[in-house]
Design goal:
By secondary structure, the protein is an all-alpha fold. The protein has eight helices and no strands. The protein has one domain. It is globular, with a radius of gyration of 18 Å.
Length: about 250
């Protein structure tokens, strides 16, 4: 099978910061498009899914990791994953418990097929088209799962956005500490953290954007989305410039 350069970024602090912000944008941007712009869940889902399909084609056609393309795809996957969960819950009436179980099972299935096919779930060797497809499908389901699980804990349980964010931050810290000091498998630690950062970002986004009556700080989806999008763009530009400089030095 033809191999490529690794198509995903190195897992660093920048990776996790941008990823959490992307999940926050996924939550607030979906609400902004659906509610503020009155596109509705269905209309928003069609538009965002179309944009995601176009961007994934571009991503799959690249021969190496390109920060701008990669992170744009992650942001759109976050939005679409949120919309998939919201459509099932709000439009079809499926309970959050059911969607959480459904997406957990779907993600486990993807991981199972991926491992049986490739004998690894490592994100450090996404260097074939098949592995990259498994990677993006898994990420889509982590966003959908994180949305359902986050809403289940933050809203249905009555815990609230702030405490839900603290809970998921604590779970991520626990994963890191277990990996760092108890030698938890690095691949398992990565995917657990990836799943937990989705509801962390979503809870943080809701905390900032929702009204005080709903348990938020009242910044609104527009301001919250703009703040996090600008921060993501700034960090991606920084990483692109840094990558270009390193490439020039190695020539």
């Amino acid at each position: 099978m033809k191999t490529m350069l690794n198509k995903v970024p190195e897992v660093t602090l920048f990776f996790w910061v941008i990823k959490i912000m992307a999940t926050t944008v996924g939550e607030t941007a979906a609400d902004y498009l659906s509610e503020t712009l009155k596109l509705g869940l269905t209309g928003t889902s069609y538009i965002m899914s179309g944009l995601l399909a176009i961007l994934l084609v571009i991503q799959l056609r690249t021969k190496q990791y390109v920060p701008g393309i990669y992170w744009a795809a992650v942001v759109l996957l976050s939005i679409v994953g949120t919309l998939i969960s919201d459509n099932l819950v709000d439009n079809i009436g499926v309970s959050l418990i059911t969607t959480t179980i459904l997406f957990s099972s779907a993600l486990a299935f993807v991981f199972g097929i991926w491992y049986l096919s490739e004998r690894t779930l490592s994100v450090h060797t996404i260097d074939t088209k098949k592995r990259e497809l498994f990677y993006w499908v898994a990420i889509l389901f982590t966003f959908a799962l994180g949305t359902s699980a986050g809403d289940l804990i933050a809203e249905s349980s009555g815990l609230g956005y702030a405490y839900a964010a603290l809970l998921f931050a604590a779970l991520i810290t626990m994963v890191f500490m277990t990996y760092r000091f108890l030698h938890l498998n690095s691949i398992l630690a990565f995917w657990l953290a990836y799943i937990f950062t989705r509801p962390l970002g979503a809870s943080a986004g809701d905390l900032l954007s929702q009204s005080a009556d709903d348990g938020g700080l009242g910044l609104g989806t527009t301001i919250t989305s703009i703040i996090f999008l600008l921060t993501i763009i700034t960090l991606v530009i920084y990483l692109t410039v840094k990558r270009t400089k390193l490439a020039n030095l190695s020539v």
